[in-house]
Amino acid sequence: MLVIRLQTPNDLDPAWAVLTNKPADWQHGSWEKLLPATRGQDVVLLIPSREVLLTQTNVNTRNQKQLQQAVPFSLEDSIADDLDNQHIVWQTHPNSTQVDVAIIKRERLREWVNALQTHQLRANVILPDLFALPWEADTPTLWQQGEFIWVRTSELSGYASTHAALPLLLDSLTSGKTEPVPLRLYSDQADTWASDPRFEITPEAQAEQLLPASLQPTLKLNLLQGLQDENRAQLRQQWQRWKLATGLAAASAILAVGLYGVESYRLQQQLDSIDEQNLQLFTELFPDVSDVDPRSLKNRLASEVARVRGKGSSSSNNTSPLPQLSAFAAAMSSTGDLTVEDIRAQNGELTLNLQAKTQQAIETLRDTLEKSLGSSVELQSSRTADSVKATLTMGGKS
């Protein structure tokens, strides 16, 4: 497994060791140098011990559900901050009521999780860094570097402090002892310890090594225990809070989609009706053309008009009615409420029998034709009970 030690969540100079069943040397460098070592490895993250409270309590149960209630309750008087803001993990002892406990602020723990995620890493275990210290039964380990001190008092307990608190720490280690206390020591100020008769010092010679026996027993006090369950519980609470609003929003969205569908269907029906009318008019103007797609009617009309004009321009007969018919087709495309009843061409003269609902439609058609042809168009009309019948006569010369 890969063990990474960080001083802050945005630490740019991590330390790491690849731990197997042998001691591993600590390495120091940049994230670019570290990341290749993460491939295929479980990741253990060591964070500063000053952010984690390691303590012990006594609970007379081994039932996990009961422990979940009893452990926080037993620590309530010894924790100044609100327990609801703390993340608590514990480990029981066989045949004992003693429980080892680790406590960290929940939001701070999430910051450490996110610190690795920014480098596309996921921690399998998070532990306080004093668990990297070697330890033997009945022999505390003290590590001193500059102003900072780490003390490991047992397999799952210890604390971190500053040099100012060192006298109190030493008194707590020797309180009630008549014989020198065995102490495993690493210090960059070793000379100050040599003359202290209260301790039997065993110097730590491998300061830059991580031992499997130091870390592996502590994995059971993983700070990530229960964090996912807390996240799920928070999501459930948020869901209960927003469930009504979400339901109303979903209902509104469904209603909007339904209204959109109804309106789309109505508009499509209108378009189909208009396509049918246009197709009927096209068929009346060009009865010889079949299999016309309403969706391409505009292009087909332009094609037929161009064909008629082309025939008219290539014809040697200057009295051909095709130019007038082409002009009429173009005029009909811009004039509504007209029905063609009959078209006759004779001796260069084109006669159109039409029916319209209003006289104005007939007049508009004639005006359009006269402007297009540049010549007069003869009009005869008569009114019936509900329509106007008209005959338009155009000369054969273009």
From TrEMBL:
Main location: membrane
Listed SUPFAM superfamilies: Actin-like ATPase domain
Domain GspL cytoplasmic actin-ATPase-like: 34-226
Keyword Cytoplasm annotated: no
Keyword Cell inner membrane part of the UniProt annotation: yes
Domain spans labelled GspL periplasmic: 236-395
Family listed: Belongs to the GSP L family.
Name recorded for this polypeptide: Type II secretion system protein L
